[in-house]
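Problem 3 from the worked examples.
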Amino acid sequence: MLTVSDTEEHIFNKVMAALTDDTVSVIPYESPQPVLTFPNLEIRTKEQTVYHNGIPVPLTNHEFFTLLYLAQHPSWVLSKEQIYEAVWKENPEHCGAAVANVVYSLRRKIGNGYIETVVGSGYRFVG
């Protein structure tokens, strides 16, 4: 355990020891809900699959995780930068049109009734 009084060198040594320790394991992200269900839409988080009207919808990784992120925060208005940072795991400084393109593609695949554009702010899941 690190404390505020530890020196930087001591902290560095502890981090390096933890990284080389074979007993340390990384726990993968798991959604608190294995299945998110909305009218005519089902998101199965563990399988990373989406069903619209009972039919599987083929999605790219970015499409799936963007939809999942929005669906896990229903009615929240999330900016393109927030979505980009959460899904792409990169600095959103240069997200450009990436999020808008993914949202456009999602709307074509699952319909227009699930993701709402909030002009000047971002997107909101309304499923």
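Problem 4, a separate protein:
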Amino acid sequence: MLFFYIRHGDPIYNPDSLTPLGLEQAEAIKYRLARYGLDKIYASSSNRAMLTAKPTAELLKKEIEILDWCNEQYAWQDFSMPNDENFYTWCYQHTHIKKLLMSQELRAMGINWYDHEAFKNTRIKEGTLRIEREADAFMLSLGYRHDREKGYYIAENPNNDRVALFAHEGFGTAFLSALLDVPYPIYSTHFTMCHSSMTVIDFAVEKDNVVFPKMLTLSNDSHIYESGLPTRYNNSIPF
């Protein structure tokens, strides 16, 4: 199985939608996804995610299955914290928390990193466990059972499906961390994704139906270059 994680296009957060550029990005990625086809298309219940998925679904004549648990509003409630300036931000963008996330102190706590005193008055533990639980149930529905203790998957229904999920960055940070057994403190501080970018994960089956998912590409935006759209990372850094 190949799993495609696509972040929504350039957004309007309030009201929840896409900018004209975001709509162009959604059009651009549909041709890339259509080149080899998709068997299943999922999207967050957020309008910006559904709008990004819509051109691909229409071109491939596929229905979009909505996954409300992927909506970024829930991840924001769980993983945001007040910063020094008294406004809320993602914990991994927080002025001081970023350093803590990479500290030996937090690494020494292992999988219980969220029990650190700094997170006592947050929902970070609940959010992490919720997304792990939902991600595992989702992957099992696709045929792959996650053994978190051993750190790999068992292919209970191995297949060659190509599955796409259109969602978000903040949610995706926690989701991909859970999917790949990469600790959230490390994943969130070192990996990100740009608007309409594609991340591809291969669930190749090995001996005894064991699967070690491998990320083939992260935040790939070659469709943006192909379409001649502005190549600025999230409208900020040109490259």
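Solution to problem 4. The chain has one domain: 2-238. Residues 2-238 form a domain with the Rossmann fold fold (CATH 3.40.50.1240).
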